[in-house]
Amino acid sequence: MPTYTLKDSDTGDVFDILLSMADKEKLLSENPQLTQVPTAPSIVASVGDRAGKTDQGWKENLARIAEAHPNSALAQKHGRKDPKSVNTRNIVEKWRSRLGKT
Question: CA 64 → CA 14, 61, 85, 88, 94, distances in Å?
């Protein structure tokens, strides 16, 4: 149920109330001294990282693509993490930077 901000014109009080839309309309029609105060909506986007919310199949797909493109940024993040693969990537990156290639 949504939260509505209402103002009592008799007392000047502003308060929040949790009602359904039908109950709010009924309350406002029965109490003409109450008016709804316009407020900005509360929007919650995403919390956390999308990578943590992906299933194992998508992670395997990313790893497969990373293996096909070993010098990509995707390979750095999702490639194999065994010592041989990590050392190979580090050596390749070292020599690429020495040769001035990116």
Answer: 58, 5, 14, 17, 24
